[in-house]
Structure to design on (351 residues):
């Protein structure tokens, strides 16, 4: 199936702008998810049916340890089809307190030779109320975990100072928590495409945000989506603040902002807008996962993400200390069979 994807379907799809392809895929996936026969077909082609590889992390059991990362399904439209592709869960979002159109297009630019996508979406999503309504109406597939990534509304009308940012995060968090939507929550503090920048990736502002978050009574795990371009000393400071505020885990990490990490930097758009996904994230994120596990032991759940294109890449993340892995770009470049291949490899060599 993957040879077919790489040799035929991908070549065809890559003729079209990625924003449009993504919209069509989401619509098709949402539609297919509603039809039992379609789900069965996808499961027959892509589902994992090998030995039990379920894993319980922070009290949540994942059928497989491979998740779809935040950003591919910001509005929670794919929850019924993703289990058929071998995913044990997904991180929906990032969702914001208010609907958000995102940045000027193009939101996505493929850098095929670099195996990377320039992401300049700027947190386009329908807002937390629409997400709660959507998820409440959609019957869940048993065993498929839903994490929800929360970010700050990316528009000047929602305010620009740190206090309005905190109010925005808290509004989404409280609403989701009260509606009991989502199995875990991730606070995305590291979106490189927000016009206010990464306000909460500084120790002072993160401490302020988390002191408000911890005042909300929540029984579900809370994670932080971490940046991968900051020095280790600053990363450690953020982790220390996370510990003080009872944060259970970290998703390592977000997009790479350093265009020098591209193998073919000449392919990048000239105005360099947006963070890089895929291969340019791989080594950086694995290194930070390793350091975090070495220094903090089992204190944090670690979700490893960035540049997973093969089962070996995923195993490298597990070996570095990840409890679970997430991906997006690998599925786009290598095909949806990648998830099953990772699960099969994991079943033979559980770390
Ligand atoms: C199209 C796209 C949109 C993304 N949007 C978000 C987002 O809204 N929130 C977030 O935390 N990360 C977002 N990301 C980052 C991914 O979750 C992930 O951290 C990054 O792409 C590295 O993984 P990959 O190499 O498997 O793509 C986005 C990535 C892509 C490709």
């Amino acid at each position: 199936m993957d040879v077919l994807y790489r040799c035929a379907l991908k070549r065809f799809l890559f003729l079209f702008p990625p924003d449009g392809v993504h919209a069509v895929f989401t619509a098709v996936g949402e539609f297919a998810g509603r039809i039992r026969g379609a789900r069965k077909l996808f499961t027959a082609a892509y589902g994992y049916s090998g030995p039990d590889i379920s894993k319980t992390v922070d009290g949540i059991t994942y059928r497989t340890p491979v998740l779809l990362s935040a950003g591919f399904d910001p509005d929670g439209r794919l929850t019924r089809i993703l289990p058929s592709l071998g995913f044990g869960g997904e991180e929906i979002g990032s969702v914001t307190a208010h609907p958000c159109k995102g940045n000027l297009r193009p939101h996505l630019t493929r850098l095929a030779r670099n195996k990377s996508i320039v992401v300049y979406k700027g947190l386009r999503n329908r807002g937390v109320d629409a997400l709660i309504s959507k998820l409440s109406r959609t019957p869940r597939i048993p065993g498929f975990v839903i994490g929800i990534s929360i970010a700050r509304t990316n528009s000047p009308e929602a305010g620009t100072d740190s206090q309005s940012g905190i109010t925005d995060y808290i509004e989404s968090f409280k609403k989701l928590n009260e509606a009991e939507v989502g199995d875990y929550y991730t606070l995305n503090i590291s979106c490189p495409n927000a016009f206010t920048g990464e306000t909460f990736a500084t120790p002072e502002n993160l401490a302020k945000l988390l002191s408000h978050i911890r005042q909300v009574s929540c029984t579900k795990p809370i994670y932080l989506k971490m940046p991968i371009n900051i020095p280790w000393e600053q990363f450690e400071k953020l982790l220390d603040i996370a510990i003080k505020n009872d944060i259970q885990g970290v998703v390592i990490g977000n997009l790479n902002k350093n265009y020098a990490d591209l193998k073919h930097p000449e392919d990048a758009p000239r105005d360099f807008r947006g963070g890089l996904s895929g291969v340019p994230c791989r080594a950086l994120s694995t290194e930070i996962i390793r350091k975090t596990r070495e220094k903090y032991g089992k204190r944090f759940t670690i979700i490893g993400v960035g540049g997973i294109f093969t089962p070996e890449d995923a195993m490298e993340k597990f070996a570095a200390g990840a409890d679970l892995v997430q991906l997006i770009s690998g599925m786009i470049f290598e095909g949806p069979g990648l998830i099953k291949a990772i699960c099969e490899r994991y079943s033979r060599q559980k770390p």
